[in-house]
């Protein structure tokens, strides 16, 4: 779960380049931003929204007194965790003291600089520094509330074992008032004589090594009575990697609430785990506490707690189970609003579609709704008498007019000229399509595969590679307006472009690069020009063969290997060593399957969480980050898989990031393919998967805006943050504005009417 967006209040008497710079920076950083022009409206706005960050213009005293406004905001209770920044004039001569600002309640100052990136960088530093620290302090208040409500007796001491905190349950059990204990050393508090002589020494020896200790201990109450307790003491590691606090959780044992044998065994095992693992989940251990303390006295409750203890001690445990267990434990000692919020969290976590965003009502945006329905589901699976048959038994061969392989040197000059700039992002694939008479994949494939040394890696002759490219291209349907070999060539071009980016090169090995180029080439082979939902609804042979799951993607991958391995003349894998072939095959299959849209958000979120965020954290901590740490993030086997999936996904749907003319061309083609599907669904009486793609009523600009908003923006933001692609992001911005301009004029077409 992600933390909420920071809320920012900008207080500027009038709009200028400085206020505009911060407005832009807030938008880029995805912060919620409010603007106020007067101290009165600023105070009113703050009391309503309780912003995390307030930026006040301190440059012009004639408009308002910035320091007086800051003091007024600080007088509001909720401002305790708010960061307030003063924008000051650039000093003419000598530097002025910041003490007046600090005394007024400002946290820091910003010397005026209207440069947008300077404003953006300032916001990022504030957010990752002061604002985040205040979030933690605010969370600290919630934690102390939980401690105060906890039914277990809790004591916190410093590293020198001076008592710093005890909760009400501790006061109640031990008979002391908080004021009698805080500030005292533990050794000053009377001890029970019932403990073994060396027990204290054993406990101290364990916890000073940074290990948890758990066991039975006799404590002496204020009235002199000894009470037997189950105690867990956890060292808390703080600044400098040293122990800074000890947290002791105590719950009494008495005749009515004995710990059962199975729980004792679980706790003994837990203790062994603690001794042997540095990174034990502290909170998981606390789950065993629940097994020993029954809030009721009935036997069923005891049995339930005992069973839970056994479940929590299981060694085979999925990560999601661990998360749910931790939340369950936190719930038991949380205030009601927190417990209710955690209930909702658990409800979400127990669904299977953790990465699929939930759309609002259908009325909100039918274009987005239909796109998601068409691309991210497997149809309605309605039985129909009109079955759409896509035969899987048809012969896939090289047509006779393609049987003679071309040589790289034999490429006609006109075609060679169109491919001169194939290493540029602005390469025109449509020109190549025309020059090659709709056979761009073979020619572009030969050039790109030669540039990357694919034949050398596979140890295969160039003639075999040419034959393979020709047979793969022959199995794309030239009758499809979009999913034809020109789309495959376009995706191959984008893949090759991404593979040349520095970060991508640092992450991937040669075998990954070869896998990516082959996967791009075959990723839509034999595509029928219909979506998975259509095939499932029509009961096609492919849908039945692949159980309505990733139907087309499974078919593309399987057919590619069938075509390749059935004939030695085009078997590019023939000379590979067995294990290397299996590794390559697995990587190709994984990348082709990643192009299926039902897992779009899962792939993007995993990439962001496993790669982008760790890299950003490393860069924040030390410039470009520790080289070894960066390398370990980039090259771990799991992350290389995520990079390859993200790479082919971005290549597959990169049309909105192409130059405008190419973007318009591809938008027209995909729309025509969807129109044809809707026509056929109506003819055959099948469910209409994407009703907005009706050629008589569809607004192409609206469909493109929805596609960019829902699928493209976040994914390419993440990919750009990794691979550094400013030219793509500029095209995306231009293209979005183009479609928005058409839509604002209520136009449904690809282009505006001629003047």
Automatic annotation (TrEMBL):
Record's keyword annotation contains Phosphoprotein: yes
Record domain PDEase: where: 407-746
Pfam families given in the database record: PAS_9, PDE8A_N, PDEase_I
Keywords from the named record: cAMP, Hydrolase, Metal-binding, Phosphoprotein
PROSITE patterns, per the entry: PAS, PDEASE_I_1, PDEASE_I_2
Binding locations of AMP: 483-487, 524, 652, 704
Protein name as annotated: Phosphodiesterase
Gene source species: Gasterosteus aculeatus aculeatus
């Amino acid at each position: 779960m992600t933390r909420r967006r920071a809320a920012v209040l900008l207080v500027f008497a009038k709009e200028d380049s400085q206020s505009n710079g911060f407005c832009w920076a807030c938008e880029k950083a995805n912060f919620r931003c409010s603007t106020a022009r007067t101290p009165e409206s600023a105070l009113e706005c703050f009391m309503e929204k309780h912003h995390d960050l307030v930026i006040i213009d301190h440059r012009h005293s004639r408009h308002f007194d910035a320091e007086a406004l800051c003091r007024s905001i600080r007088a509001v209770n909720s401002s305790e965790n708010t960061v307030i920044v003063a924008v000051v004039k650039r000093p003419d001569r000598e530097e002025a003291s910041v003490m007046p600002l600090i005394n007024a309640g400002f946290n820091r100052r910003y010397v005026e600089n209207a440069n947008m990136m300077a404003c953006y960088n300032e916001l990022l530093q504030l957010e990752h520094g002061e604002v985040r620290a205040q979030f933690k302090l605010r969370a600290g208040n919630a934690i102390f509330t939980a401690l105060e409500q906890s039914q277990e007796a809790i004591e916190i001491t410093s590293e020198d074992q001076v008592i710093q905190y005890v909760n009400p349950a501790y006061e109640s059990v031990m008979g002391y008032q908080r004021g009698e204990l805080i500030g005292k050393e533990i050794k000053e508090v009377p001890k029970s004589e019932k403990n073994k002589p060396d027990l204290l020494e054993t406990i101290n020896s364990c916890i000073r090594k940074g290990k948890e200790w758990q066991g039975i201990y006799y404590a002496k109450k204020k009235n002199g009575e000894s009470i037997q307790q189950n105690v867990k003491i956890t060292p808390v590691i703080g600044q400098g990697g040293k122990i800074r606090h000890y947290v002791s959780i105590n719950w009494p044992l008495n005749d009515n609430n004995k710990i059962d044998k199975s729980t004792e065994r679980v706790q003994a095992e837990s203790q062994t785990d603690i001794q042997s693992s540095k990174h034990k989940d502290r909170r998981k251990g606390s789950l065993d506490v629940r097994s020993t303390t029954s809030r009721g006295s009935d036997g069923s409750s005891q049995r339930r707690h005992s069973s839970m203890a056994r479940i929590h001690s299981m060694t085979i445990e999925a990560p999601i189970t661990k998360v749910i267990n931790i939340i369950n434990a936190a719930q038991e000692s949380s205030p009601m609003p927190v417990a209710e919020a955690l209930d909702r969290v658990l409800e979400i976590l127990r669904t299977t579609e953790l990465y699929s965003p939930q759309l609002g009502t259908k009325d909100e945006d039918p274009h987005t709704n239909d796109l998601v329905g068409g691309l991210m589901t497997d149809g309605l699976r309605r039985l129909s008498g009109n079955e759409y048959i896509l035969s899987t038994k048809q012969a896939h061969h090289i047509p006779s007019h393609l049987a003679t392989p071309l040589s790289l040197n034999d490429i006609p000059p006109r075609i060679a000229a169109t491919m001169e700039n194939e290493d540029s992002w602005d390469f025109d694939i449509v020109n190549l399509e025309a020059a090659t008479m709709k056979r761009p994949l073979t020619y572009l494939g030969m050039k790109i595969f030669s540039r990357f040394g694919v034949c050398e890696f596979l140890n295969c002759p160039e003639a075999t590679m040419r034959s393979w490219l020709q047979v793969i291209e022959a199995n794309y349907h030239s009758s499809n307006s979009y999913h034809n070999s020109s789309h495959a060539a376009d995706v191959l071009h984008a893949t090759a472009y991404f593979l040349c980016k520095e970060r991508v090169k640092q992450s991937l090995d040669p075998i990954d690069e070869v896998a990516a180029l082959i996967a791009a080439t075959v990723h839509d082979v034999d595509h029928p020009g219909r979506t998975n939902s259509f095939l499932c609804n029509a009961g096609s042979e492919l849908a039945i063969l692949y159980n309505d799951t990733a139907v087309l993607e499974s078919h593309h991958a399987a057919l590619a290997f069938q075509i390749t391995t059935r004939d030695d003349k085009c078997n590019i894998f023939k000379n590979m060593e067995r294990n290397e072939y299996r590794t390559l095959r697995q990587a190709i299959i994984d990348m082709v399957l990643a192009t299926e849209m039902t897992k779009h958000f899962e792939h993007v979120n995993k990439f962001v969480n496993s790669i982008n965020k760790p890299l950003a954290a490393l860069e924040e901590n030390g410039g470009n980050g520790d080289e070894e740490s960066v390398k370990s993030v980039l090259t771990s086997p799991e992350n290389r898989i995520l990079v390859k999936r993200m790479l082919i996904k971005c290549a597959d749907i990169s049309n909105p990031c192409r130059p405008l003319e190419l973007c318009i061309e591809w938008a027209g083609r995909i729309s025509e393919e969807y129109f044809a599907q809707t026509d056929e669904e109506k003819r055959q009486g099948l469910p209409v998967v994407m009703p907005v793609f009706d050629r008589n009523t569809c607004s192409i600009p609206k469909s493109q805006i929805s596609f960019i908003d829902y699928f493209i923006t976040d994914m390419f933001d993440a990919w750009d943050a990794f691979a550094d692609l400013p030219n793509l992001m500029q095209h995306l911005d231009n293209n979005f504005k183009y479609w928005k301009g058409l839509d604002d004029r209520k136009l449904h077409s690809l282009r505006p009417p001629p003047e």
